[in-house]
Amino acid sequence: MHKMFTFNDTTGQCGDIIKHAGGFMPYAHRRLGFNKPVNVNFVSDAENAKDPFGKTAYYDPNQMEITLFVDKRHVKDILRSLSHELVHHAQNC
After folding, report:
1. 65-69 and 57-60 as β-strands: parallel, antiparallel, unpaired?
2. Which strand (E) or helix (H) includes residue 5?
3. C-beta separation of 89 from 64 below 8 A
């Protein structure tokens, strides 16, 4: 079976988040049943983090890619965003 997800940490500081996300992804894959791989990007954006209504995450259906913003966020909040975007990925599949 080919790998259904890849992680890219553009911040260089998301080891703990990636560890927890890596444990969650097999469950999400089984539960949501997506049949195409998804790429997950962990991004630091200081300007976005300053905005109380800044982006938390988004899904690009054309690239089958999730972007998660990580600055000033708790791990469980980032995983909640990941969960939400994975539903969009499953819908796209």
Report:
1. antiparallel
2. strand 5-9
3. yes
User: Tens digits of per-residue pLDDT, 27-73?
Assistant: 999 999 999 999 999 999 999 999 999 999 999 999 999 999 999 99
Q: How far apart are alpha carbons 19 and 22 in whole angstroms? A: 5
Angle, to 10 degrees, between the axis of helix 15-32 and the axis of helix 75-92? 40
> 44 near 18, Cβ under 8 Å?
no
Residue 41 CB coordination number (10 Å): 19
The H or E element spanning position 7 is: strand 5-9
Judge contact between 24 and 82, C-beta under 8 A.
Answer: yes
| Distance (Å, whole) CA 93 – CA 17 | 25
